[in-house]
Design brief:
Blueprint lengths: L16 E5 L2 E4 L4 E4 L2 H4 L8 H11 L12 H14 L3 E5 L2 H18 L6 E5 L8 H6 L3 H4 L9 E4 L4 H10 L3 E6 L15 H12 L2 E5 L23 E4 L10 E5 L20 H16 L2 H19 L6 E7 L2 E6 L6 H7 L2 E2 L1 E3 L3 E4 L7 H20 L2
Parallel strand pairs: 3-13, 5-6, 5-7, 7-8, 8-9
Antiparallel strand pairs: 1-2, 2-3, 4-10, 9-10, 11-12, 12-15, 14-15
Helix pairs in contact: 2-9, 3-9, 7-8, 10-12
Length: 393
């Protein structure tokens, strides 16, 4: 078989996986790989988790899809569960993180129009990633993925990440701003963790100017950073929060949650999705969320993340190319002073799956079910790879 019939949109690695179990994947030759990227943060419960497999099989044998022309019991149960966890009030279900962010952007624009702002604008930050649809691509702070797709969607004001002073200046000079859209931790931007008071300062700024605080937790949500949502570690509430990735453990689902005025902005006819929140996706997500809660995987992610970060910091303390080991929970980055994309292929040879973000940062998003033994294995392999890479160029 060849890839000749597939559009050339991905630079794929030369491997195909046949099965997975827990934190490991296996290729067609039976070789085992420790999966430290988890489908880019999707497989929160790892591979072939029985709760997920059982939920999919049971629901597929009952009812897969009806559309949002009708009530969907599993959707209502999932919405109630997520609202209880997040302290939000209402949910719109989509099929991906990009679609969840599209819903948030539309909420912000309609919110602005309802307040009499003719051309409402949303502040976005440099280094961010919100998706590859035209609106989310335009909101993304990465010129590389925008190139060739102009004209971009208008209505965004760009600011540096982790810079409240810059936002205050924007507020002074822009009366048409109605919202801020930001990741609590930059993912594709290189696992960049902001100052500890950043989200609280954003909340205060939004309250002062009656802006919506919209947090993109597509990657940071669902237990990834050691709390169910990253903002819960900062003692604030956003007006809108989006998530996807780990919510379905591989079954496509996204969610845009909102509270207050933002929760009631969209009305029938304003937005929709044919597949969004169908019975199969919601049954799977219910199993995922219940498992994260019952197995205390948020706490586990925090402790395993600390183990990995501490081990990496110790193992690379004498590495001349190391800039920083950073992260929160099981969202971890190792930044070097040089481009290190080739480490992805070198790691593959060693039976390890990693990713490189922003050119210089090794990104790790292992499944939340990773054991202490596997966490140590991951840290040891990354240290060995980095040291060999730096010392033997």
């Amino acid at each position: 078989m060849t890839q000749a019939s597939i559009m050339n949109t991905y630079g794929r690695l030369p491997v195909s996986f046949c099965r997975g179990e827990g934190a490991y994947l296996y290729d067609e030759n039976g070789k085992q790989y420790l999966d430290a990227i988890a489908g880019i943060g999707v497989n929160a419960l790892g591979h072939s988790h029985p709760a997920v497999s059982d939920a999919i099989a049971t629901q597929a044998n009952t009812l897969i899809h009806t559309s949002n022309l009708y009530r969907i019991e599993k959707q209502e149960k999932l919405a109630e569960l997520l609202c209880g966890i997040s302290d939000m009030e209402r949910v719109f279900f989509a099929n991906s993180g990009a679609e969840a962010n599209e819903a948030a952007i539309k909420i912000a624009r309609l919110y602005g129009h309802n307040k009499g702002v003719k051309k409402p604008r949303t502040i976005v930050v440099e280094g961010s990633f919100h998706g590859r649809t035209m609106a989310t691509l335009s909101a993304t702070g990465n010129r590389k993925i925008q190139a060739g797709f102009e004209p971009l969607v208008a209505g965004f004001v760009r600011a540096p990440y982790n810079d409240i002073t810059a936002l205050e200046k924007i507020a002074e000079n822009n009366s048409d701003v109605v919202a801020i859209l930001v990741e609590p931790i930059l993912g594709e931007g290189g696992v960049v963790v902001p100052d500890s008071n950043y989200l609280r300062a954003l909340r205060e700024l939004c309250d002062k100017h009656q802006w919506l605080l919209m947090l993109d937790e597509v990657q940071t949500g669902n237990g990834r950073t050691g709390s169910y949502f990253a903002y819960q570690g900062c003692d604030i509430l956003p007006d809108v929060v989006t998530t996807a990735k780990g919510l379905g453990n591989g079954v496509p689902i996204g969610a845009c949650l909102a509270r207050g005025e933002a929760a009631n902005t969209l009305q029938p006819g304003n937005h929709g999705s044919t597949y969004g929140g169908n019975p199969l996706a919601c049954a799977t997500a219910l199993a995922v969320v219940h498992t994260i809660s019952s197995e205390k995987l948020c706490d586990h992610a925090a402790s395993m993340g600390k183990l990995i970060i501490d081990s990496l910091t110790e193992g690379l303390c004498d590495c001349k190319a190391l800039i920083e080991v950073r992260g929160r929970g099981l969202m971890i980055g190792v930044e070097l002073d040089r481009e290190c994309g080739e480490l992805v292929s070198l790691a593959l040879e060693q039976g390890l799956l990693i990713n490189v973000a922003a050119g210089y940062t090794i990104r790790m998003l292992p499944p939340l079910i990773i054991s202490a033994e596997q966490a140590t294995e991951l840290a040891d392999k990354v240290c060995s790879l980095v040291l060999n890479f730096v010392n033997n160029p």
